[in-house]
Amino acid sequence: MTIRRILIANRGEIAIRVVKACRELGIETVAIYSDADVDAPHVAAADRAVRVGAAAPAESYLNIAAIIGAARREDCDAIHPGYGFLSERPAFARACEEAAIVFIGPAADTIDRMGSKVGARELMRKAGVPVVPGATPSDQSTKGVLAAAQSIGFPVLVKASAGGGGKGMRILRDAVDADEAIDGARREAEAAFGDGILYVERLIARPRHVEVQIFGDSQGNAVHLFERECSIQRRHQKVVEESPSPALTPQLREQMGQAAVAAAAAVNYRNAGTVEFLLEASGEHARFYFLEMNTRLQVEHPVTEAVTGTDLVRAQIAVAAGEPLPWTQQSLAQRGHAIECRVYAEDPQSGFLPQAGRLLLYREPTGPGVRVDAGVIEGGEVAVMYDPLLAKLTVHAETRTAAIERAIAALRRYAILGIRTNLPFLIRVLDHPSFRSGDIDTGFIERHVDALTRAPEPTPPVVAAAASATSSTARRPGVVSASSEGEDPWASLSTWGR
After folding, report:
1. Sign of torsion, CA 470 473 475 478?
2. How many angstroms separate the CA atoms of 115 and 67, rounded?
3. Nearest CA to 79 among 296, 224, 265, 293?
4. DSSP secondary structure of 364-429
5. 237-266: pLDDT as tens digits
6. Is the dihedral of CA 272, 276, 281, 284 positive or negative?
7. Helix H segments across 39-100?
8. What domains can be seen in the chain, in order of their start residue?
9. Got the DSSP string for 93-108?
10. How far apart are the first and last CA of the chain?
11. Active site residue 296
12. Which of 5, 26, 240, 401 could disulfide-pair with 232, CB 3.0 to 4.6 Å?
């Protein structure tokens, strides 16, 4: 089929990313926006824009009826869900199908099946994909869940079947206070997902989080596009991703890729997706276990695009239109090393408290091998009701060492004033000896948090120069000055702090 017009059911940098791919393909785009996003960059980037509701996500970006209605009124052939919001809601995929609108993603049934951690785990076990030893107790009482934990052996993780992002998850190291932890996990799961079913699995000490990009088409073909190392995370939220993983040998890489393709085949997967694994140890002694499948495009997809030379969004659109995969497994290869840093509007010194306000200065770094996917512009407002992700900085170089140096240099040239960000924190992560050596796991940030969040360094020259220039402009007629008393207007606003 021919796709002429796509509605993008998202906002921020991913909406702009989809617009760019559509522009290259000659496809019209329709953006949606809430009352808080009337002047947002993604609205200006698209060919058309439609209001779908109030600022609260439930009334706009999560409003299925309003979004489907907008797509119908604008005569859209397809909807791209991006990531987050409705991207992994089977009800949204079904609503698209019922409205005869192409959903650029997997089938609703696939999303549904992989949305249950218990069901997905059993499906993967049957497909021969390694899973972490665990159990889903038929007796879902607190006593029954504790008995399951004791049968597996402490320490264990109690997890919500419908969970994600660490919600409904507790660590049990012994039976002491286990009842309270289990009840807390169930309450949190019911509140977040409307489903209190819990399962228990063995806790792997100091695991790495390694995921494999998969892609399938409607002709039954499936491939993997290698791995991404995602162990640098905080509260189960990824912060820095890279490819290739420094922990994988060629043999282990091949084994994980084959397991990911087997997972895709088990559910007749179509379009872009990711199979996430926990990696125990590294090198020749490593063992990996299925964690979950993300039935959508990932935030960190630029890392894969950089090392494989592919355009995943363009491929998503082609596959959704019924075309076969643009690559075979043999045609895909990794080249060089890529690192992505997520730039957040948050204050690491204050417990990573999300920030909101106007971006008085915003300057992105440029240069060979530097890519920035941003959803903000200078003068724009950062709203507290949405994800605090401002942009993604991705670098590509010939080696991992060169990529680290390139990323640090780019972060130092990234100038943001008006709200605090995690830029100094990211630099410290990349410059840490353990990160440089590749000795990382999912507990890296927690172990080193004090060193990573200490008082920021002095403002870099590039930021100071930009601040000075903007300060002069701010005193011109018609522009609100940050200070009316002649003091440094950026002292309390700099992302680098005081």
Report:
1. negative
2. 22
3. 296
4. ---STTEEEEES--TT-EE-TTS--EEEEEEEEESSHHHHHHHHHHHHHT-EEESS--SHHHHHHH
5. 999 999 999 999 999 999 999 999 999 999
6. negative
7. 41-45, 64-73, 90-98
8. 5-104 (3.40.50.20), 133-202 (3.30.1490.20), 208-452 (3.30.470.20)
9. HHHHHHTT-EESSS-H
10. 57
11. yes
12. 240
Query: How far apart are the C-alpha atoms of 240 and 416, rounded to whole Å?
Result: 19
CA distance 358 to 380: 6
Q: What is the total residue count of the chain?
A: 498
Interacting residues of 180 by C-beta distance below 8 A, sequence separation 6+: none
Residue 183 structure tokens = 């009840």
Within 10 Å of residue 396's Cβ, how many Cβ atoms?
A: 25
Amino acid making up residue 71: A
CB 9 within 8 A of CB 296: no
Strand partners, 136: none
Out of 170, 270, 296, 413, which one is annotated catalytic? 296
pTM of the predicted model over 0.90? no
Residues 358-377 pLDDT 10s = 999 999 999 999 999 999 99
